[in-house]
Design goal:
This protein has a domain at 78-118. 55% of the residues lie in helices and 4% in strands. It is built from 4 helices and 2 strands; from the N terminus they run ααββαα. It has helices spanning 11-23, 25-44, 81-105, 134-167, and strands at residues 53-55, 58-60. Helix 1 packs across helix 2 (25-44). The longest helix has 34 residues, at 134-167.
C-alpha cells in the first residue's frame, strides 16, 4: 500500500470536487438546480404524451393499426403479427368499453363523445370499413384445417390405444 494511514476515498466526493474545480462552483450549482427542476417536472408528468388524445380528462385509446400484408411470413410462427394485432385489438376494445362505462357513469351524453368511441357511430363511410384480407383468410383457413387434422389424429391415437387395451 502506498499510504496505509490515509484510508479509502469516497469517489463520489472526489468526482464532485474535481467537477467544481474544472467547471467553477457557480456553474456546477446551476447544473444541479436545473437537473433537480427537470426531475421534479418529469415526476409530475403522467403517461399522456403529445400525441395522446383526451376527452373530459380521460385518455381516448388509439385503435391499433392492422399489420401490412407483407408483415407476416406465413410460416406458422408461435407469435404471429396477426396474433399480436388481435391481442392489441382486444385490449383496445376493453379500453373503449371502460371509457364508455366511465362516461356513462358521469352522465355525459353519447352525442358529445368522440365518434370513434360512440356505441353507434353517426356515419360509416365505405372507406372506413375494413376489407377482408384474402391472404390472411386463406392462411387462417389453412391453420384451422391443420388444427382439426391434429385433433383428429390425436383422437384416433387415443381411440386406437383404447381398443388395443380392450383387446388385451
Amino acid at each position: 500500500m502506498k499510504h496505509p494511514t490515509r484510508g479509502g476515498q469516497n469517489l463520489t466526493d472526489r468526482y464532485r470536487r474535481l467537477e467544481k474545480s474544472l467547471r467553477g462552483k457557480g456553474t456546477y450549482q446551476k447544473d444541479i438546480t436545473e437537473l433537480a427542476e427537470e426531475a421534479a417536472t418529469l415526476s409530475k408528468s403522467h403517461k399522456t404524451g403529445p400525441g395522446t388524445r383526451t376527452f373530459m380528462g380521460f385518455v381516448v385509446p388509439e385503435e391499433p393499426k392492422p399489420p401490412a400484408s407483407d408483415d407476416c411470413c406465413m410460416s406458422g410462427c408461435a407469435i404471429c403479427v396477426y396474433d399480436l394485432y388481435d391481442e392489441a385489438l382486444d385490449e383496445y376494445k376493453k379500453a373503449v368499453e371502460h371509457l364508455q362505462m366511465s362516461l356513462t357513469a358521469l352522465r355525459i351524453p353519447e352525442d358529445q363523445w368522440p365518434e370513434d368511441i360512440q356505441t353507434e357511430p353517426k356515419s360509416k363511410d365505405a372507406k372506413t370499413q375494413r376489407k377482408p384480407n384474402p391472404t390472411l383468410s386463406a392462411f387462417e383457413e389453412f391453420e384451422a384445417r391443420l388444427k382439426q387434422k391434429h385433433a383428429n389424429d390425436a383422437a384416433m391415437a387415443t381411440s386406437g390405444s383404447r381398443s388395443v387395451a380392450a383387446g388385451l
